[in-house]
Amino acid sequence: MAENKISNSEKTCTLKEVLDIIGGKWAMPIIYHLSKGKMRFKELERSVEGINTRMLVKELKNMEANAIITREVFATVPPTVEYALTIKGEKLMPSIVSLHQWGQEFTL
User: Fold this and answer.
1) Judging by beta carbons within 10 Å of its beta carbon (0-12, 13-18, 19+), is residue 33 exposed, middle or buried?
2) From CA 41, how far away is CA 63, in angstroms rounded?
3) What does the alpha-carbon distance between residue 55 and residue 45 come to, in Å, rounded to a whole number?
4) To the nearest whole percent, how much of the chain has pLDDT over 90?
5) Class at the top of the CATH hierarchy for domain 2-106
6) What is the three-class DSSP state of 103?
7) Which contacts (CB < 8 Å, 24+ apart) does range 84-90 have?
């Protein structure tokens, strides 16, 4: 019985960590758009409907810190920045697709 409580506690901690990484309102739409390939900052900003610049910067920094995306800066004038999913980020796609399907079935 005590062993069961420990495993449930560990599962809860893992789920909380996952939600801390991708639980933001904008994280999943950003990941979805980046699943199509590399995108520049302005392309992402235009693609993710309703997001403002400040929130996009915050979400991208969080995802970069958690190794979900990579950020590549090019020495151009003005500077060009491209974002792409890492392997870790790409592995989130089946979960995001499943959540999307669940949403279509139960929220529409």
Assistant:
1) middle
2) 14
3) 10
4) 70
5) mainly alpha
6) helix
7) 84/34, 84/37, 84/38, 84/39, 85/31, 85/34, 85/35, 89/31, 89/34, 89/63, 90/35
